Write a sequence for this structure.
């Protein structure tokens, strides 16, 4: 089996982000590894930071880590041009998740009905991750 699994990098607040996403999406954490549990040399203040975590929700997952400044094997999360797109069949569930995820973040596009037939909106969460929300409302028509 093949899969595309998004991998997010955080600036020292990965664990806080994962707990927030559990609340937003009713997910759960899979494997959690801390830098202090590995042979990777890190400064003492990073020993409890997340080296790798899997966040499981819906029918998939994403993975994440804390960025270690100066390490050369992680990248800083700020300035990302990546957006995680969430597809819904229930507009009420989408609105609920949208409202959870915007807590402490910023709505970059309010939820709205679109010309292509979806209800759509975008949020940059309090960790700087960009999310897109989409729910087909059954209004799209094929033009020939």
């Amino acid at each position: 089996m093949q899969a595309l699994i998004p991998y997010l990098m955080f600036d020292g607040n990965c664990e806080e982000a994962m707990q927030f996403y559990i609340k937003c999406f009713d997910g759960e954490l899979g494997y959690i590894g801390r830098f202090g549990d590995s042979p990777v040399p890190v400064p003492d203040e990073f020993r409890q930071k997340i080296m790798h975590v899997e966040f499981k929700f819906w029918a998939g997952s994403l993975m994440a880590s804390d960025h270690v400044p100066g390490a050369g094997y992680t990248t800083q999360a700020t300035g990302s041009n990546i957006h995680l797109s969430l597809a819904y069949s229930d507009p009420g569930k989408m609105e609920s998740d949208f409202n959870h995820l915007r807590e402490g973040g910023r709505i970059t596009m309010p939820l709205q009905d679109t010309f292509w037939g979806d209800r759509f909106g975008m949020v940059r969460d309090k960790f700087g991750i960009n999310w897109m929300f989409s729910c087909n409302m059954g209004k799209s028509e094929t033009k020939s």
